[in-house]
Fold each of these.
Amino acid sequence: VTFFKCGGVCLGVAFHHTVVDACGFIHFMNSWSDVARGREVTCPTPPITERTILRARNPPRPAFEHPVFKPSLASEPIVPAKDSSEQKPQNTQFTGAIFRFSRDQLARLKEKVKEGDNSTIRYTTFNSLVVHIWRCVTLARGLDDQQQTKLTVSVDGRKRLRPEIPNYYFGNVVYIVDVPLVSSDLKSQPMHYAASKVHDALLRMDDDYLRSALDYLELHPDLNVVVDRGGHQKRSGLSIASWGRLPIYDADFGWGKPIYMGTVVLSVDGLGYILPSPSDDGSLSVVFALETDAMRSLEMLIYDI
């Protein structure tokens, strides 16, 4: 706990992602704050810790390919832009930033992503925002047109599995979705091109697919191998987790509701989060880190909507 001269208070908390995901962690924080304010010691919704909920089937029968657990794009060499004549220094500096998008800006993004699209897909705010960020980051990095870039999205499986898992399940139900594209397609094609790829990838994450993923992992007892293969693609990819619908501002320890909640360290290139507004005004904030030079370029692109 850090107390500031102005009277403000900062509470820093860490959790291990193998044990619990953001949804379970926020439930813990909100329950903890209820107890701190003198509310019922027994939580009205006690956490569920039953690990058999995510047990593989017997026998395991994976029915789908799961490329996120196979050799990833992260192993491919980075192709610098053709006009880049300098090698990046080994001690690359990273800069973290927070970009706020108002309700009106988010609405404009949803309109923009539908321009020229004849499909019946109804793109979500998340889909529109994350594709816009991905495209801007790709431009800011100056990637070569033939360089492959990958969007990695964290998906909460609670509402996708059958039967559904309650929000107060204390465990890790996060699944990873990878959407690879060639840089030139992301930069030159209409926004709905990439948005449709993201939409299709998320739509695929139903009970059958997620159960298949559990079975796939069951057949690979050395999880270090499959875990190391998938995941975030540094310097050419973007990894986004959305906390936009989590009640992250309900943790009142007696000092009032928080004015900001977010991660402390932003030092992984292209790793970020989408956060809701503390004032519940419909805005969203995107928090992530990039190499400092790329971040400077991004600041000139991000609000061109």
Note: Strands lie at 2-3, 9-10, 94-101, 148-156, 174-182, 238-242, 271-276, 284-291.
Amino acid sequence: MIQTFVIIIGLLVVSVYMAHAAGGVSVVIESARETGRLQIFPDWGQSGQWWIYIGGFLTAALGSIPQQDVFQRVTSAKDERTAMTGTLLGGMFYCMFAFVPMFIAYAVVVIDPDHLQQFNSDDLREVQRTLPHAVMQSTPFWVQTVFLGALVSAILSTASGTLLAPSSLIVENVIRPFRSDLDDKSMLRWLRIVLLMFGTLALHQALTSNNTMYEMIQQAYSVPLVGALVPLAVGLYWKRATTRGAMASIVSGVATWLAFEYMLPEFLIPSQLMGLAASFLAMVVVSLLDKSETIRPDAVQR
């Protein structure tokens, strides 16, 4: 809660300062409109851009459902109404607050047009450096302090949930079924070990990857999109869904995604959408062919 408060206050303070330095909010918005920065959708004739747009949107919108961003918070709500209201309010807040850092970044361009060269760089990693460079070079010390506080809070808030969620899932759903004799002390030890492993892998990826932060986040969200979304959604709402269908869905989705991601990277349709389609197809076909007993969780009630 404190980290969220620091993030919100920090970004709002920086945005107010940048808006004042740029000549006002209207000046920044008008400049963005004149240069086409407010165009939300690609042009109709650009089919490739549309596929990229749809792939990016579905990856963030649907890929977050099977993980702690959405599903964990929904299942922890006290009742259905709270789960629905909280999810909708959270989504609207995400949409509104996402414009704040974008406004700050473009206000930087209005203040100093030389920063526009970073947006036109062939190396996309230069674009993500625009905001921190501008804040550190063009603002007083107190604004830098507030900005860095918000940045560190965002990193810590994201890292804590992102590391704890998969670690607890692995220990509870993978290790514990094979070690039924585990007591609480042993569970805690395994949790620490898995947490350290995930942290080491994440650190290695961050230090060695040449991708931008957006690309790394998109890859991370692609995993639950192609491997977990279909078994979760279809398993909840389709009576014919089976365990074998879910397993086939996971394997087919992940395998297809990896194949297109690394073997056909220039394919028109994004790899995560191909993986999602393969996951859904495998779930339906294998479940229909499977004669075993269908799985219908009794806990799910409408």
Note: The first helix runs from residue 2 to 22.
Amino acid sequence: MGRHRPDHATGEPMDEGFGAIVRNCRKLTRLAVSGLLTDRAFGYIGKYGKLIRTLSVAFAGDSDMGLKYVLEGCPKLQKLEIRDSPFGDAALRSGLHHYYNMRFLWMSSCRLTRQGCQEIAQAMPRLVVEVIRSDDEEETDNYVETLYMYRSLEGPRHDAPKFVTILRIIKPKLMLVQIKFAEPSDVCQKWGRGGAKI
């Protein structure tokens, strides 16, 4: 369809059209959506697309709720590819219950932060979480260009190019606290045997 384009006949979002597709095609296993779609369309996908295994989204949605509807409503979802959509960290966190069942999640040009991706890596240690930037892009702590998250029996790859950062689990640092105890003889001298101060 193209970037956020409305229905060419009505000029309105195409929510009802995609809603009709998922309502009437209950055996649908693959779906690609793009164009002017609001969270309502994703609500329909989550409600009726119970057999969807592969979903591609481009230039669609208007808040984190759209992705939340899909991740909470499509239990069979295996492959999810999203680009140029307004989904951020809250949307990403909404799928924590489901990611181990998926083969991969690819999000590009969305509103994800490095911190949000790191939270997922911490919460899902058996998944590989990669942050990918373009060759000429500097590494920053702000928005992430591309997130690629997948299952692997062998763990993270060892041949990742320089523009790929594999997020690792950050183990909490142990703090050593030195406690100095008073000598028993000092306590006895100050307080006496019966607890009365001397």
Note: The chain has a mean pLDDT of 86.
